[in-house]
Design a protein that fits this description.
The complex is a heterodimer of chains A (215) and B (410). Chain A has 215 residues and is an alpha+beta fold. Chain A contains 5 helices and 11 strands, in the order ββααββββββαββααβ. Classes of the chains: A alpha+beta (215), B alpha+beta (410).
């Protein structure tokens, strides 16, 4: 990332910004166009270490994690590339091993609003495990990123073959959903505050309108 | 002051890979904000007579919300520039060139006023912000607000007041504003003055007969005052209709949050001339004058007794009520005050005067001499203070307080 002024004509107001260039294509190619994948060995200790850090998998033991790890698919994304776009088909959850992911939602034209960021140990796209509706936001790699993908079919397999494990994952997922809902509420509040301040509305004393009441 | 709110935006350039992340603070966007007034069909602007300092105010009416805003010269300048083409940055610079130094808060407050009146794109979250602001009030502010809330529950308003007033005006109300009726009022007044002058030598006996039946006298007086007060505001409303303006509202409320009284909201007369406003102001107290005159003439024509005393007492109370209503220096925004404010072209005289008091110590310390408008405001406050003090002293006996006999030796 580098700091440089914004493109002329892009914005009327001075803004701080970071430029995230695309570093070209991906290392590997597979089913999702430029995204490549390969199945990792369930015995790889580095994956288990990573999965231990993931909030939804905290209740699982090594053996269970090994079963789950066998279902994960690795993806390597270059900085600046799109992982999935808003309205894309939704079918997987992603766990970040390396790098940073920025999730944004389209506002207008070529402008998105940044919703959140994910760092190593975080996961995103969990709605895709339960809901076949299109993606609600776009995920970009802000830097070179390594992800682990848990597809919906793989998750359904966990639900049917390992219900105890699935129950623990789902319980943790609900907790994470609640945290994210709270964060979304805060973000909505902040966006409203921004709108109020940006348009000059002041809550300090409601200005009285003019009037005459004859008595 | 809280940190300005920030938004992070992600942008892409067409045909280029990658993206940029921008952080935009609210105050940066604020300067770039281009306020735009709605189409001219949604509002009406009426210039007011020039004030003592030569400046001109304007009344801006929102047809959408039925709200009225008083615009000072700087606010009018801003309104003229809120065309959607100029940013606040540019407008503030233009304002500076036009008026010299100014407080940026004027722009912020004016925008808030316009939002409230529906004269800029509406912000639906005002209630939320007010709720947040309320949480930071002190306990005594909350207590006072709670008491005010319960006290204000006695207020009520009549829906579709304009519709009823228009119907009443068309079905005979217009007769009140014809010359023959005005001449009749004049004749009644002259007759009442003669009646009072004839009855005055017997005033002690008249008062004694009333004092003999205090409960009945007081009850009849109260009923009469309430009835005449209702007619008073109704005539204000009909006068407003007589000049083709709208009656926004009628009902019962707490004047200055304190004094329970009936009211007619005749703000729409600000879209007419100053003469019309004075006529509407004057029409209400005429009710007390006319009814009081009728009572005095009735007392004069009656045989001495409780009936005559009661009529004389009613006449006296109604004339005093008219006098209090027409007297402008009592801190209350009654008809006399409204006329004074109209004649001085200072429609918010009382509020300006009270605001000046808060600023005055600082002004005096900095050696700044008040201008002509401020002298008027100070004069208004001084006369109000003296008048209220004189009224209280004159009525101290009613509270059982005896003043020392000044000038008498030991």
């Amino acid at each position: 990332m580098s700091d440089s002024p914004p493109a002329a004509g892009c914005h009327d107001v001075p803004v701080r910004f970071r430029k995230v260039p695309s570093n070209g294509g991906l290392r590997l190619t597979a089913a999702l166009g430029s995204i490549s994948s390969h199945v990792m060995s369930s015995s790889a200790p580095s994956i288990r270490d990573l999965l231990h850090q993931v909030a939804v998998l905290q209740d699982l033991d090594d053996q269970t994690l090994s079963i789950l790890a066998a279902l994960l698919v690795s993806k390597t994304i270059k900085g600046g590339e799109v992982i999935f776009r808003e309205l894309d088909h939704s079918d997987a959850l992603y766990i970040v091993e390396q790098g940073r992911v920025v999730v944004s939602k389209h506002v207008r034209g070529d402008v998105d609003i940044v919703l959140t960021r994910f760092n190593p140990g975080d996961f995103f796209g969990e709605m895709g495990l339960f809901d076949a509706a299109p993606r609600s936001a776009t995920a970009h790699a802000e830097s070179d990123t390594v992800l682990w993908q848990l597809g919906r079919h793989a998750f359904e397999q966990v639900l049917s073959d390992h219900p105890a494990m699935a129950a623990r994952i789902c319980y943790r997922l609900v907790t994470v959903f609640i945290q994210r809902l709270r964060a979304t509420n805060e973000q909505a509040r902040e966006a409203i505050r921004w709108g109020l301040e940006a348009t000059g509305y002041s809550p300090d004393g409601t200005p009285a309108t003019f009037g005459r009441k004859s008595t | 002051m809280a940190e300005p709110a920030k938004l992070e935006l992600l942008t892409r350039r067409p045909g280029e890979p990658g993206f940029e992340v921008h952080e935009v603070e609210s105050h940066q966007a604020y300067l770039g904000f281009r306020p735009e007034r709605p189409p001219s069909t949604e509002w009406e602007l009426t210039p007011q007579p020039r004030g003592v300092d030569g400046s001109r105010n304007y009344i801006l009416k929102s047809h959408k919300r039925d709200n009225y805003l008083l615009l000072g010269p700087q606010e009018y300048f801003l309104w003229e520039h809120f065309d959607g083409r100029h940013s606040l940055n540019e407008i503030s610079r233009a304002l500076h060139f036009e008026f010299g130094s100014f407080d940026f808060e004027i722009i912020r407050q004016f925008l808030a006023k316009l939002y409230l009146a529906g004269l800029l794109n509406e912000i639906q979250t005002m209630g939320l912000r007010r709720g947040v602001a309320r949480r930071h009030e002190r306990w005594w502010e909350r207590s006072f607000a709670a008491i005010s809330k319960y006290w204000s529950r006695i207020t009520f308003r009549v829906s579709h007041a304009d519709h009823y007033c228009a119907a009443l005006y068309d079905r005979g109300g217009f007769l009140l504003f014809c010359w023959p009726f005005l001449l009749l009022c004049g004749a009644l007044l002259v007759g009442a003055i003669i009646a009072v002058s004839r009855l005055w030598p017997h005033v002690a006996e008249i008062a004694a007969r009333m004092a003999a039946r205090p409960l009945l006298s007081t009850a009849i007086m109260l009923v009469t005052i309430v009835f005449v007060s209702m007619l008073h505001v109704l005539v204000h409303a009909l006068a407003c209709k007589a000049y083709g303006r709208k009656v926004r509202d009628m009902g019962f409320f707490l004047l200055q949050g304190l004094l329970p009284t009936f009211y007619a909201d005749v703000t729409d007369i600000f879209m007419s001339s100053r003469r019309v406003r004075v006529m509407v102001d004057l029409s209400g107290p005429m009710v007390e004058v006319v009814f009081g005159s009728v009572a005095f003439i009735g007392a004069f024509g009656s045989e001495p007794g409780f009936g005559q005393s009661l009529l004389f007492g009613v006449g006296l109370v109604l004339w005093e009520s008219a006098l209090l209503n027409l007297y402008p220096f009592n801190f209350l925004e009654m008809d006399g005050y409204n006329m004074l404010a109209d004649l001085l072209a200072m429609p918010t005289l009382r509020q300006q005067a009270l605001a000046l008091i808060r600023r005055l110590p600082h002004r005096l310390r900095s050696g700044k001499i008040p201008d002509r408008a401020e002298w008027i405001q100070l004069g208004y406050l001084a006369l109000c203070f003296i008048s209220v003090l004189a009224y209280l002293i004159a009525h101290l006996d009613a509270f059982g307080v005896k003043l020392p006999a000044w000038g008498s030796g030991p």
